Amino acid sequence: MIVGRLFWVLLSVLLVVTGTSILTVKFVEAQQPTDEAGSLTTTPEPTATPGPSENGDPSALPEASATPTLPPAADTPSPTPVPTATTVLALTGLGWFEESDSPAPAADVSILALSPIDCAVLPAPVVGFEVSRGQDPDDISDFINDLTANGFNVGSVDISGGVNPPPCVDVLIVYGLSQNRAIASPYTPAEGALLQAWAASGHGLMLFGDWGNFRAGTDALFQTYGYTQQGPNPVTDVTDFDAPAPPPPNAWVIYQTDNFAGHPILNGVTSLELLAGSWLSSATDAIITTDADAVPANAPVMAAFAAGAGCVTLVTDSNWVGVAGGGYFKQNNATVARQAIQWLNGCTNLKLSKVAAPNPVQAGGLLTFTLTAINDSVAAVNNTIITDTIPLSTSFISATGPFSGPDANGVVTWSLGVLNPNTSASVTMLVQVDGQTPPGAIIANTAWITSSQGLSDTATTLTPVNLPVVDPQVVKAVNKNQAQTGEVVTFTLTVSQTAQSNSNATNVQVVDALPNEVDLIGSPEVNAGFTQVIGRVVTWTIPVLAPADVRLMTLRVQVNNSSPPPLTVRNQATLRFDQGADRLSNLVELFVPASAPPSLPPDDNDNNNNDNDNESEPAATATPVPATPIAIAQPAAPAVLPVTLLPETGNWAVELPLRWISLGLALLLAGVIGMVLKFRLR
User: Fold this and answer.
1) What is the CATH number of the domain that holds 526?
2) Statement to judge: residues 534 and 423 lie in one domain
3) Whole-prediction pTM value?
């Protein structure tokens, strides 16, 4: 008995404790903040920073921890490697060399590869780099790249064996060094005469010299024009020089505007630097001279002049446009070099220009060459003659102007006679490209102009051949989408070529078979070609449709009653042409709706109001009764627990979930009731 009572007492106490615990735990959870995902968050306890002891004992301070080594940032520059050896330029009897190098020229490891000039490939303007003495284009790669960027086409030229530069070369560069050393062998007087005659026929020649033993390489070319490079030692200037420089000091001389003569090559130039150069024996046509305090004083170092129909520049240093020593980028050297090439290219007195059109041209198409002779001199040019050879893969059609030919070699000649100063004359030649010429082929053509004064020039055109593209199309439209029986409708057909077309379409025909449900009214209207109507078939013929042509035809038709409506009338035209297969236009549709039913006569019985007055009473109008809305049961919305933001802590206080409140209170109440009953039973 005692045991049984004790059991019920303990059970009641357990129920009270359990219910109280549930309420307490859930209340505490409701007070804790949560993150955006609903997870409970905790705030770490602040850690006190240890400081010195109150009595100032430094032993109470914490020990300093070792600072970890951090890797460098991604954009931190790497340390510059320290060179293990220093290269020094040494002065020898042959010029400047690196002490680690031998005087013998190194093997050619040229990065800037120049192809031999092919006049059938390179269009004007063309600059040649002479290589017969082992010159390396890498020595002046910055200069060459600059010329290319400014629209010049650069290639190599070899005059070995007395061969003239190709006729399309406008300017020839003869460099005085090879990999910053002496060239393989000196040029000869015969080669000087060859280049002199070539330049005089209407070309530009840019000659480079140097100092010491280097000057012997190109001296024969200078002497052809009456100049000699002077001095075993370079020009020096104690006031205008670039330091530091290899010995002897003051040899990298800076020339400024007080050293310049007025010349187009020096337009806008304020300074030029020659990296140890010789000087000229003659001051004729000099455009740059040394200072009065230079050694030698007032000596010419650069000359520029016209020679026959061509022009020539002489410079007593090579490194000023070279890579070695960074010469090309010193002072205004790059500007002077570019302007020298431009002057040499444009200084000839008699010029020939040539234009080919169309460019590109289609196989089988016509190609017109327009040639213009220009006399820029102050004197008349006599016996001016233009010659042009019929290019391969073409046949001669006609020419304009006083021409003769073509002769057995396919040469056409125009005799222009006297060409007065600052005047020009133009002639044309028409050829037809062979129809079997493959796409991508190049029609190359070079023409010449000569005169009694020895003035001459050349001009070359390169015209690519495109594959003929013929791509006509026909588009059909209707002015309305729906029409009643008997109504008139207009069809419009537009014929054109797509954007990629480049050739004419021939014998173009549009065939339109009209549907049975419509009849043609009148005759078709077109803006080109002609039409033919046989039965219900309209045929429109356009003999030639050029790529830019747009042709129109309109057809007026009337909807007939051959088929009972409602119905849909569909129509589509066919396009035919010589160069391709038949093509269809887009499909147009016309909807013909059913006719409206006829109106019925009024029924006397319907209108009888029994008053025998032949008047109709208005029908009674029913008063609309508003519809009673039908109540639709909606699911009860879930109860929303109130949420309160605690102003001081920022934590959310949420009322306890109903299920936990019920469980906790039930257990607590059961335990209390059990204890009360047991004690009362006692």
Assistant:
1) 2.60.40.740
2) no
3) 0.46
